Amino acid sequence: MEPPMEPPGKQPPQESPPEDPAPKTAPSAHILYVDHLNPQFSVPVLACLLRDTLERLELPVAREHIEVVRRPRKAYALVQVTAHEATLAALPWRLQAALEEHQIPKELVARGKELVLGEGPGPSSGKEEEDSGPSPRSYPSPAHSTPARARQGSRGQPRGTRSDSAIVRQEIEGQERLFQGAFLGNETRSVEFKRGGGEYLSLAFKHHLRRYVCAFLNSEGGSLFVGVEDSGLVQGVRCGHRDEDRVRLLVDSILQGFQPQVFPDAYTLSFIPVVSASAGSTPLKVIRLSVHAPKAQAEPQLYETDQGEVFLRRDGSIQGPLSGHAIQEWCRQKWAAELSKLEQRLKALTAEKEQLQQQLQQRAPVSCTCCVL
After folding, report:
1. Interval 166-207: pLDDT, tens
2. Which are the contacts of 232, defined by CB distance < 8 A and separation ≥ 6?
3. Per-residue pLDDT reduced to its tens digit, 351-362
4. 213 and 223 in contact (C-beta within 8 Å)?
5. φ and ψ at residue 287, rounded to 5 degrees
6. Is the dihedral of CA 156, 100, 162, 36 positive or negative?
7. How far apart are CA 192 and CA 212, in angstroms?
């Protein structure tokens, strides 16, 4: 029998409303499997790089939730995360976009491999674990997209950050770093490299400090890198917190004796961490002392060290200490250069004045008519 008809205007009793097909549930715990990590780096270095990578993928994770397994020829990681399913499903798209924008450090991935990122239960046992690692449940890749492959350097070329990006600004999530073995380019008039091994900081650094800072001040400025080979490869020097304090005090005390006086805004001293495959008790760093180009003065002047010596900078070398005759010749050339600039400026102003006068003469005279009513 059919149910009786309801009177008009009265709605039949309905059941409970259907649930949202995509309810906003609380994030759940997952285990991510990351494969094809670079086995050349130690476990702490891989964990640090992997944590920065996940933060770029909008998946922050604590350091203690990252477990890196490192073999002689293979390295992978298991990461415990708390996130929604939709966030995990979007990881391939975010990874692809981050690789295209060069936001993922290529040192994280093994040479010639693709970064594998998915959800997996854990490593298997036996020889299979060492050869292939756990079998993750990978998420679907975006349509019409190329594999997310970390770009590696060509054979025979030093691997690491490039010259321009490393010297100017190579930042990873707000902190500047250099990788051991990275190639920083060649020495130029504004760049000087020093290996800095052994007792360099306590013996030879102060002598190089005087010479190169004075030479940079008497030219267009430049930077002194300590912890870099002459070939441009990053090696780093052992430099702890106490060593940093001693270097700062040494730089300040020596530069205070320069004439004319060198103020703190004329130079910048920084200590760049070096990521190395071998972990040591004292961290490796590259010391960078950047000297800014001096402001234009009313008359040319030469800077001299606290010992009364004068140095000039040339391409890849320095000249000095200068004799009295060389200093006079430098002043003469500076005056000649300034005089040439003033003469060119005077010619430009004279030509502009003549052009304005010709324009005034070419204008027709204006007639005035007075009307008396």
Report:
1. 443 333 344 578 888 888 888 888 999 999 888 888 888 999
2. 158, 163, 183, 184, 185, 186, 187, 193
3. 888 888 888 888
4. no
5. -90, 125
6. negative
7. 8
